[in-house]
Design brief:
Layout (H helix, E strand, L loop, with lengths): L1 H4 L6 E3 L8 H16 L7 E4 L1 H10 L6 H16 L2 E2 L5 E2 L1 E7 L9 E5 L5 H8 L4 H20 L3 H14 L10 H19 L7 H15 L3 H10 L7 E7 L10 E8 L6 E9 L4 H5 L5 E2 L3 H4 L1 H18 L3 E8 L2 E9 L4 H13 L5 H6 L3 H7 L3 E2 L9 E2 L1 E4 L2 E7 L2 H9 L4 E5 L7 H6 L2 E4 L7 H9 L2 E4 L5 E3 L4 E4 L2 E4 L3 E5 L4 E4 L4 E2 L2 H7 L10 H16 L3 E5 L3 H9 L5 E5 L9 H9 L3 H25 L4 E5 L12 H13 L5 H13 L11 H6 L3 H18 L5 E6 L5 H19 L7 E6 L2 H5 L1 H4 L5 E4 L1 H9 L3 H7 L1 H7 L15 H15 L4 E4 L7 H10 L3 E4 L4 H13 L8
Parallel strand pairs: 3-4, 16-17, 17-18, 18-19, 26-27, 26-33, 27-28, 28-29, 29-30, 30-31, 31-32, 32-33
Antiparallel strand pairs: 1-2, 2-7, 5-6, 5-7, 8-9, 8-11, 9-10, 11-12, 13-25, 14-24, 15-19, 16-23, 20-21, 21-22, 23-24
This protein binds adenosine-5'-diphosphate and magnesium ion (2 copies).
One magnesium ion (MG) binds next to loops.
Length: about 900
């Protein structure tokens, strides 16, 4: 037994041992390198250290037992296979040390290339490359730079500075103009920078370089920007990263070498074709860093036909294998193609729908899978408006449409300024030559991002797409001057604070604020675009997938609507009823006067008169809504907020009274109001006299509303329509409350409805924790439950939304107490548990009890999945969220658990 316990846990996998389904263990990069290796594609040999090793290292601060030995063994077999030894002075094996987590985190983690070079092996490398000194010293200076920056935290600018100095001494901007001697000098300069900052010489031992680099990759998991990115993307904090050790191949060996990135379809529009950037005589990271201007991938066809054809063949093969859009990184070393990375590529929302539709057409996936591959957040993005362009607006520059959307805002040039202005509530566009991970905060704060360099695969483009932010990249007519806080374009100067507009679909940049128009997806939902006849691949794909979702889903989708106009719009968006019609707006505007009379009434007669005056107004409101929702259920909530919300604020009244008194006017009415406001003041209005409590305290109030609803339904029926009212009592905590309201309501309904055939249901909101916990009793008096998850969240957690969101939510999110605000997405463990209990116990007491949700969570993708699981009958959400809820309710049915399409 003891002997067995000492058997090492396996922490290191050769590429030939893994596959694409091992992302948890090998990270996305490692799993896909293994997959490509096993497909027989040209991948440089290497091995992957698992995320488990990283987790163990981060937990204990040291490498787990057995790891060092396994790395040693895998390195030895790599050396045997390559016939070279790591850092051998005469013919060195060099490796890259690359991070790679389960979910891709572009630019977030660290990679070190050329590990194994030192003062001796640089000479060997040159000899092996045919006395190519320039190449060898270029590789060595890159190692010191990357190693210094990522492993030893030497400030990267210092290296860049030294490089700029040498370039300007030579009078050039292009690093290709530096010769071997320049680069040898640069290595010396870099070494000095290294030792100045670290207090030690640059490590000459290849194994030490390797070990330090591996450790640095582990530690980069907890670097600030990685933590920030994970929070944005809701990636769990405890996954850890894998580390890939990969034999180096060289794109910087001369003009017949190079490096590139590519997508198998356009990640912005989904259009079929080959999209990518290529850079000759360069090492990997140069392409993404935008250091020199890349050429479109198609030009590789002229430079190196054989490699280009091979690449296209591999891309086709990968698409067929992964059955999805793939992105890849490759390097060509003296005419030999090497695959360095692939993954199912990120894409815009529009591309997600278009590609899913195309793949169905191509027979690669079925409609269930297509539904699984899109999501409600993407659909929501597609419902944003776009620019309305006429001749008045001419673009001043055109870059690459890197992430779609229409954004206008004040120009800022630094991340810090973006954050500042955004905090003041202004829309800003972050303008940079190119972005890097340090710009993340500014990118989050900005409405859009504009860069003058870099392609569709630049940092700005990739990160913006992930965030769903509008981005135009590589608008190279724009000359950005960050220190002077301005850019110039087409002879004009744009300074910080000036407003510009950027179109992330077309890549066009405009001065001033361009007006916007609605999205075609919204037009389709509104019924003004016929999906069968329109030549718009996006609308066709959305139509097809939505139709499939509707066919699959079990949850009905209703809307929250208080007016006929809202109801009509929501119905066009596919709402199958109203889940929440609030009645409080019916007490506002010119009806305030009546409400004041109601509140100030001294004698029953005065109150009754006020209610009688309100009755026909309410009835007309309901008639309009029933007409729009003809044939569909309409849940009307009886009045919910505390009545003092309908009166002027205390301070204002006090001033009015004082001023009027001063003038010697008659202030009897103002004084009475002021007294009422004082009397009705509550310390915690949220927990005060509201909801059902009002109905029990103010005679005739609920009765008037019930009568208005019933009369409206009857009048609708008489007009040939079908009204299906459901009267909902808010804030019930005990069955007795509901029973009291119900007894009175039933009498009125019976009287009004007579033999009209109208049926009126009576039910309750479940929004007080006690109601959830006594749902079995409450169900005896309720024909339906509707979960008010906003109040249930407030009361479940014991905080009021208005007070807490600004006060401390940021801290709770930072500490990980919330992964996401419980008002945005339902807290499954706590508030969700209350929902579950109430659903189960309610249904047990009354089989057939209708269950729905009418809080804002009804339109949140993740929450919709939860409500599906709990077995509710419907969700209800704002009109614009209805399509999102329909889609997610369908996805909840086809959801298989694991997902590649993040
Ligand atoms: P990221 O996750 O930021 O893309 P990578 O680990 O993919 O980081 O590496 C950064 C760059 O270095 C990429 O362009 C990649 O293609 C290149 N690269 C990584 N490993 C090698 C290698 N063994 N040989 C040549 N280039 C490499
Ligand atoms: Mg990469
Ligand atoms: Mg409520």
């Amino acid at each position: 037994m003891a002997a067995q316990e000492t058997v090492d846990h396996k922490y290191v996998y050769d590429f030939s041992e893994g596959n694409k389904d091992l992302k948890d263990l090998l990270g996305g990069k490692g799993a896909n390198l293994a997959e490509m290796t096993n497909l027989g594609l040209p991948v440089p040999p290497g091995f992957t250290i698992t995320t488990e090793a990283c987790q163990a290292y981060l937990a204990t601060g040291r490498q787990p037992d057995g790891l060092a030995g396994q790395i040693e063994a895998h390195l030895e077999s790599l050396e045997r296979a390559m016939g070279k030894r790591l850092g051998d002075p005469r013919d060195p094996l060099l490796v890259s040390v690359r991070s790679g987590a389960k979910f891709s985190m572009p630019g977030m983690m660290e990679t070190v290339l050329n590990v194994g070079l030192n003062d001796q092996s640089v000479v060997g490398l040159s000899a092996q490359a045919g006395q190519n000194d320039r190449f060898a010293w270029d590789s060595y200076r890159r190692l010191i730079q990357m190693f210094g920056k990522t492993v030893c935290e030497v400030p990267g600018e210092e290296f860049e500075h030294a490089l700029d100095e040498i370039k300007s001494a030579k009078g050039t901007h292009d690093d290709l103009d530096l010769d071997a001697d320049d680069l040898r000098g640069l290595v010396d300069a870099y070494k000095k920078i290294f030792s100045k900052h670290t207090g030690r010489e640059f490590p000459q031992q290849p194994r030490e370089q390797l070990d330090l680099a591996i450790r640095a990759v582990f530690e980069s998991w907890n670097a600030e920007r990685a933590v920030l990115y994970r929070r944005q993307e809701r990636i769990p904090a405890d996954l850890g990263t894998a580390v890939n050790v990969v034999t180096m191949v060289f794109g910087n060996l001369g003009p017949d070498s190079g490096t590139g990135v590519a997508f198998t379809r356009d990640p912005a529009s989904g259009a079929q074709g080959i999209y990518g950037d290529y850079l000759a005589n360069a090492q990997g990271e140069d392409v993404v860093a935008g250091i020199r201007n890349t050429v479109p991938l198609q030009e590789l066809g002229q430079l190196d036909r054989a490699s280009y054809d091979e690449l296209l063949g591999i891309m086709a093969r990968l698409e067929e294998h992964y059955k999805d859009l793939c992105d890849i990184e490759f390097t060509i070393e003296r005419g030999k193609l090497w695959m360095l990375q692939t993954r199912v590529g990120k894409r815009t929302a529009a591309a997600a729908f278009v590609i899913a539709g195309q793949l169905v057409d191509e027979g690669l996936i079925d409609l269930d899978e297509a539904l699984h591959r899109v999501n409600g957040a993407q659909l929501a993005q597609l419902m944003f408006p776009r620019f309305q362009l006429d001749h008045e607006f001419q673009p001043v520059a055109t870059g690459i449409g890197a992430s779609p959307g229409a954004a206008s805002g004040a120009v800022v040039f630094t991340s810090a300024r973006a954050v500042e202005l955004a905090a003041e509530g202004r829309s800003v566009i972050l303008v940079r030559r190119e972005t890097n991970p340090d710009d993340l905060n500014g990118m989050i704060a900005a409405k859009g991002i504009l860069t003058s360099r870099g392609g569709k695969t630049s940092h700005a483009a990739v990160v913006a797409r992930g965030m769903g932010k509008t981005c135009v990249s590589g608008a190279d007519d724009i000359d950005v001057n960050v220190p002077a806080k301005r850019f110039t374009v087409a002879g004009q100067t744009v300074s910080e604070g000036d407003v510009i507009s950027i179109d992330g679909t077309t890549g066009k940049v405009y001065l001033g604020e361009v007006p916007v128009m609605p999205s075609e997806v919204v037009q389709y939902f509104e019924g003004s675009l016929d999906p069968e006849h329109i030549d718009n691949p996006l609308v066709r794909a959305v139509h097809r997938i939505m139709t499939h979702a509707d066919g699959k889903r079990r949850l009905a989708v209703r809307t929250n609507a208080d007016t006929g106009a809202d109801a009509a719009r929501a119905r066009r968006f596919g709402a199958e009823g109203i889940g929440l019609c609030r009645t409080e707006h019916m007490f506002l505007g010119d009806r305030r006067e009546l409400v004041e009379r109601l509140i100030l009434a001294r004698a029953p007669g005065e109150r009754e008169a006020a209610l009688a005056a309100l009755l026909p107004l309410q009835r007309a409101d309901f008639e309009e809504i029933f007409r729009e929702m003809d044939g569909l259920p309409v849940t009307v909530r009886l009045i919910d907020p505390p009545l003092h919300e309908f009166l002027p604020p205390l301070e204002q009244l006090a001033v009015n009274v004082a001023v009027a008194q001063e003038r010697g006017e008659d202030v009897a009415k103002e004084e009475a109001l002021l007294a009422a406001v004082r009397r009705m003041h509550e310390e915690n209005p949220m927990l005060g006299l509201r909801g059902v409590r009002l109905g029990l305290v103010i005679p005739g109030l609920f009765a008037m509303q019930v009568r208005a609803i019933a009369e409206a339904a009857v009048s609708c029926a008489r007009g040939g329509g079908v009204a299906k009212p459901e009267i909902m009592v808010p804030l019930v905590g005990a069955v007795q409350e509901l029973e009291t309201v119900r007894a009175e309501a039933e009498k009125i309904i019976a009287e009004v409805v007579g033999d009209s055939g109208v049926e009126v249901l009576i039910g309750t909101m479940i929004e007080v924790p006690r109601a959830a916990l006594t749902a079995g009793q409450i169900a005896e008096a309720a024909e339906f439950f509707s979960f008010g998850t906003n109040d249930l969240t407030q009361m479940g957690w014991g905080f009021s939304r208005d007070d807490v969101e600004g006060a401390f939510f940021w801290r709770y999110l930072e500490l990980g107490i919330f992964g996401i605000s419980p008002f945005e997405s339902i807290d499954r463990d706590g508030v969700g548990r209350l929902v579950r209990i109430a659903a189960e116990e309610g249904r047990a007491a009354r089989p057939g009890l209708k269950l729905g949700v009418c809080g804002e969570h009804g339109g949140d993708p993740d929450s919709v999945h939860f409500f599906h699981e709990v077995g509710l009958d419907y969700v209800s959400c704002s009109p614009f969220r209805v399509p999102v809820a329909r889609l997610e309710a369908g996805r909840a049915v086809v959801e298989t658990g694991g997902s590649d399409s993040r």
